Amino acid sequence: MRARTYGDYLPVMLQLLDPKKEETILDVGAGIGYIASRVAKSCDNVYALEPNDDKVEFVKSHFPEVKAFSGNVSSIPFPESYFNKIYVVAALHHFRDQDMAVNEMARVLKSSGRILIHESNPERMGAKAETRLAKGVRFIESSRLKEIVEGQGFKMVELRNVRSSYFLLAEKE
């Protein structure tokens, strides 16, 4: 399912993430692991954090090149400064406390590490956003996300609008 809905964005995401073989990369909210499996084609150490145990088992059985584990973004079970890069694809709106989530990702990210966040832009979604917001989905505008990441010690690298969504790429200072 994620492959169908995200396929058009994948080349942009991979270009911005720019995974390298020797890096250690974390996919936060990995779902069934489709994107992590694509990142693993360029990187030997891809981890997939997913709160749904059934999806974690799916990743393990279908994408053995991805190191999948069950967990939550509020408490990533890795030491400080472990990952070179972290990405979140279409999942930030599910996090109860987005500021805390960025803070926790910053904790496990190495100095000069990069974070890439893809999110639907409520300013560009029209009526679709209103329907989802009414159901408790917390889409975040790019300007607000920029404030959050900069408040956690990141500097902006790029903000790229793609249809009704955006990618935000930032580097930990």
What's this entry about, in short?
The protein is built from eight helices and seven strands, in the order H-H-E-H-E-H-E-E-H-E-H-H-H-E-E.
Discrete helix count: 8
Range of strand content: 25-35%
CATH topology: Rossmann fold
Radius of gyration: 15 Å
Write the SSE topology:
Layout: H1 2-6, H2 10-17, E1 24-28, H3 34-39, E2 45-50, H4 53-62, E3 66-70, E4 83-89, H5 98-108, E5 109-120, H6 122-125, H7 127-134, H8 142-151, E6 154-162, E7 165-172
Parallel strand pairs: 1-2, 1-4, 2-3, 4-5
Antiparallel strand pairs: 5-7, 6-7
Describe it for me?
- With 173 residues, the chain is α/β, with parallel strands linked by helices.
- The protein has a single domain (2-172), classed as Vaccinia Virus protein VP39 (Rossmann fold, 3-Layer(aba) Sandwich), CATH 3.40.50.
- The protein contains 8 helices and 7 strands.
- It has helices spanning 2-6, 10-17, 34-39, 53-62, 98-108, 122-125, 127-134, 142-151; strands spanning 24-28, 45-50, 66-70, 83-89, 109-120, 154-162, 165-172.
- The protein has a 7-stranded mixed β-sheet, with helices on both faces.
- Helix 5 (98-108) links the parallel strand 4 (83-89) and strand 5.
- The longest helix has 11 residues, at 98-108.
- The N and C termini lie far apart (36 Å).
